[in-house]
């Protein structure tokens, strides 16, 4: 028997026989899972026996992680609390958050000016966008990243809701350890398995992490330079268009319906200008943008600031599938220059719950609207469906609940 299988076999025997006082209720089953499912798959993917023996033997599941179901995914998934309060987008954009991030970001831009020049030249992504993602993901590396990624991924592969996904990520993480870029002790992650300062999943690390400081290792845990370049490479590989911004805050006249929101309703920015859309700060759109495509973005319908988003806004969403996330990054990137708030206000809105939103979505679906799924969250498809429903009933469309 191979040494790793022997170690696991002994662990199973000891745990099953109750010969360790600290054994958890799932430890023996977890050891069998690693032996029977992970080891063969990892070996087939090219992970060496030495790495498997060193990194997996004796590991126990972290049953304190949120969102677990039960061994082999058997059990009731955690219920979504649809009675929880639905948070309006404006709550994510307090000036205090941005003020706390702008100063350190500017300092880092000065510190790494020459390096950022090279990163921009190679990848075509503006430094302010790179720094804004770094800030959002880990507060420029200052946030605590406390978890053992191998244990997190193994636990989720064993008893999580997306077992196949986390099996793949676990094998990717073992490949990273085999490469020698990082030691197990330093390979820290969030409770969801996102690693290091840019919060890459292991598969993203393998695809997009780069060694830009030239020390022979892709170190997104300790190297600021590798972190910045890896973020830039990720965005470039996901289609960042060089020379374009993420978007612009605008004044959207009442004659332009909020029901036209969405990336599937793009048109030239010059056409929006002809319809009376202007930049909120009073400046004209850059000449090079006028012939380019953009779309209306209304994260809070008519109850919040309005934007014309470019395709780069949706590249930011490739990093995190959230309008609020991408807008936070874009707005912070703008504030590194002129630390100014949005021009438009986030107006008070009626308090509601995810359950109430889901009920509304279900009604809209029954009436033939495409809301993008009844999940209690208000994406652009739900917003414009609300607006179309309002217009059909003779009201001015706000594209927001209430």
UniProtKB/TrEMBL annotation:
Residues 1-23 form the signal peptide. Keywords: Signal. The keyword Signal applies. Pfam families: SLT_2. SUPFAM superfamilies: Lysozyme-like. One of its GO terms (biological process) is peptidoglycan catabolic process. This is Membrane protein. The gene is mltB.
